[in-house]
Description:
- The structure is a single chain.
- By secondary structure, the chain is mainly alpha-helical.
- It has one domain (about 15-65).
- It is built from two helices and no strands.
- Helix 1 (about 15-35) runs antiparallel to helix 2 (about 40-65).
- The longest helix has 25 residues, at about 40-65.
- The protein is elongated, with a radius of gyration of 16 Å.
Amino acid sequence: xxxxxxxxxxxxxxxxxxxxxxxxxxxxxxxxxxxxxxxxxxxxxxxxxxxxxxxxxxxxxxxxxx
Length: 66
């Protein structure tokens, strides 16, 4: 193992939070530009159901790195 990576651990919430954030943005883009998500409640559930956990995972991932 290289000396540069000594003490570095893989923090799984960061990539998972990033993927959930991309899913949230993709749902917003589908709704705005292509009008594919017509059901307002379903659209909000998808966006908030991915956005909030994404933000939480990004927060936890960065706090675990310290």
